[in-house]
Amino acid sequence: MSTSLSFFSSTIFLSNPKSNIHSQKQRVFFKPLTATTTIRSEAAATATIPILSFDGTEVGSTTLNIKSAPLDTARAVVHRGLTTDLRNARAGTASTLTRAQVRGGGIKPYPQKKTGRARQGSKRTPLRPGGGVVFGPKPKDWSVKINKKEKRLAISTALSSAVENAIVVEEFGDKFDKPKTKEFIELMRRWGLDPKEKALFLMTEIDENVILSSRNIRTLKMLTPRTLNLFDILDSEKLVFTKSAVEFLNERYGNDDNEWEFEEEEQDGGKVEESAESSE
User: Fold this and answer.
1) What is the structure's pLDDT at 13?
2) pTM here?
3) Is the sign of the CA dihedral 233, 235, 237, 240 positive or negative?
4) Nearest-CA neighbor of 87 among 22, 180, 151?
5) CA distance 134 to 127
6) What are phi and psi of 196, to 5 degrees?
7) What are the backbone dihedrals phi and psi of residue 184, each rounded to the nearest 5 degrees, phi first?
């Protein structure tokens, strides 16, 4: 099973006419973002996806209408969102001891001369086992900040690029009376999913029997809107949404620009009120 990200197969990395990407092994240079860069979503991703029943038959269709960054900035936005998540996930607790912090070394290990060995003045030297470490890691904060609208735009752009490999299914949480991994694998095959391929299930509510039935499938991840993240979207080969999950995506990452602007104005107003109260 490959552990590398599959985002090179996404349309945001292949549809840019300015880039010459012929293989996954070719090095890709991302456009850096500065603090003054303004992210604007000028493209809209609207796709009609068929809805599959529990038996695997098509019972209708739904529309996924979410934001998508322009082609010239899509790769940079997704790259910045991904690197931000990876940096913020680092604990930064690695710590080594210098020669001044390790124990021992109060006396000279052996005489300076007449031993035939190299001269040593302390047991704490980095040249000896158990000695100090030169330029070793120390506790560090690796976290970086990212604009909320930019982070949201990165997720919506990644979702819109992978919509070709997405399906929508009816709610199936009540279909499992007891945990059964074999039945869940059969369900995936009825939906045209290969258990050996990485699949991402996005559901608003996950039944306990569904969790127990799918947890032994290593290539599958069950996510909710609270745990939805950019890495798992890019790392998946197939996306499976429930009808309620599609409604959430359209509401959260939809094309209503006024909603995002209203949230910012509300936050700015709250800061102004707090500053006024503190001044009083």
Assistant:
1) 52
2) 0.70
3) negative
4) 151
5) 10
6) -85, -10
7) -70, -35
Q: What's the pLDDT tens digit per position in 91-133?
A: 999 999 999 999 887 789 889 999 999 988 888 999 888 899 9
Count of alpha carbons within 13 angstroms of residue 219, beta-carbon side = 16
Task: Reply yes or no on whether the pLDDT at 194 is more than 90.
Answer: yes
| Nearest in space to 151 (alpha carbons), one of 239, 67, 216 | 67
What are the structure tokens assigned to 44, written together?
A: 């809209």
Q: Is pLDDT above 70 for 265? A: no
Which structure tokens are listed for 102?
Answer: 């390790």
87 neighbors 145 (Cβ within 8 angstroms): no
Q: Helix, strand or coil for residue 98?
A: coil
Which two structure tokens, joined as six digits, stand for 114? 């007449």
On whether the CB atoms of residues 11 and 161 are closer than 8 A, the answer is yes
Which of 16, 58, 49, 55 lies closest to 165 in space, CA to CA?
Answer: 49
CB-count burial class (<10 Å; 0-12, 13-18, 19+) for 33: middle
Q: How far apart are CA 45 and CA 153, in angstroms?
A: 12
SS3 content of the chain, % helix, strand, coil (to 5): 35, 15, 50
d(CA 148, CA 136): 35
